[in-house]
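Write out the bound-state structure for flavin-adenine dinucleotide.
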Amino acid sequence: MSLHDIDKEVYDITIVGGGPVGLFAAFYSGIRNMKTKLIEALPHLGGQLSALYPDKYIYDVPGCTKILAQDLVKRLEEQAMQVNPTIRLNERVVALRRLDEKLIELETTKGLHYSKTVLLTTGMGALSMKKLGIPSVDRFEGRGVYYSITNKWMFRDKKVIIVGGGDSAVDWALNLKDIASEVILVHRRAGFRAHEAKVIELFHSNVRVLIPYVVKDAHGTEKLESVTLTNVETGEEVTLETDCLIPQIGYEMNNSLYKSWGLDMDEHGIRVNGKMETNIPGVFAAGDVASPVDSPKLNLIAIGFAQAIIAVNCAKHYIDPSSPIFPGYTVKLR
Ligand SMILES: Cc1cc2nc3c(=O)[nH]c(=O)nc-3n(C[C@H](O)[C@H](O)[C@H](O)COP(=O)(O)OP(=O)(O)OC[C@H]3O[C@@H](n4cnc5c(N)ncnc54)[C@H](O)[C@@H]3O)c2cc1C
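---
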């Protein structure tokens, strides 16, 4: 693919990463009247909260006695959408270049974007679905093997094998049990990482659970037709006919990019000063990815929110030095 400008318009701030911190930053930059774009690698917003623990309660967000991670994401989305930021999903930022004093170019998997400032809220790094790494399985990706699901109705009346023992695997098994003609969940050990209540529901459902098995091979001509599993204790092999294989064995994270963008890093992440500025002028970082000099590294949502406020206010002042860093207090949105 040749690179092209998918959006020639220059934004005041482009937020990379749509986790809780990026979402809150998108709202905050909106109330500072900054033209805002948010780019997220995954097909959905919410970062770790959506990808890793949607059904876990969070108890340490100010003002919420307890809140499900997925509900906090909904509220953050709702709050951000009030200020109409441009949101680009399914698009990973792969390079960052400072073209001049007030212009930064971001290269993504889909093209080029331009911004006066950039706020990196990339958390644990670009998350992507972990692959099984079995060539015969990879051969059928999109033709029976699916690592991510965008439309659950495509599994209607199909035989489905799901692999994994975490929240995603169990959630999808429960989600598809009344849509697919048969759902088998394959897990390599007796212990599940998924939410306890969901696991109980799983064992009381019509889902067939096969433990302790791993996928060994996939077979078919045009599309997937069957899968061979190995019992990890006995070595016994079993081949099952199936239409679909859905591996849900976790996410992979990649932070190695930042060094190649010229950012100073330490063992905790991208180094930032008290204004959340990185070593590249106009580029800020907040949340889990940021490693503030001279302050403790606490990977917590509330800390990320406060860092986002500092970063956005300082970005505003960077673009327009006549605009104060302190924004004053919030008033009703127009
Ligand atoms: C199991 C678990 C339980 C937790 N419980 C709590 C809790 O109770 N309370 C609490 O305060 N914290 C909790 N945390 C920590 C909390 O989830 C993190 O502090 C928070 O998610 C950080 O938010 P973030 O927006 O900085 O990053 P993330 O949530 O990691 O989001 C970053 C986003 O950026 C995207 N991204 C990365 N690189 C790119 C790129 N190059 N291009 C485009 N997009 C990119 C990623 O896909 C991701 O969506 C928990 C964490 C875990 C794993």
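---
The first strand starts at residue 5 and ends at 16.
Helices lie at 20-31, 48-51, 69-81, 135-138, 167-176, 196-203, 257-260, 301-319.
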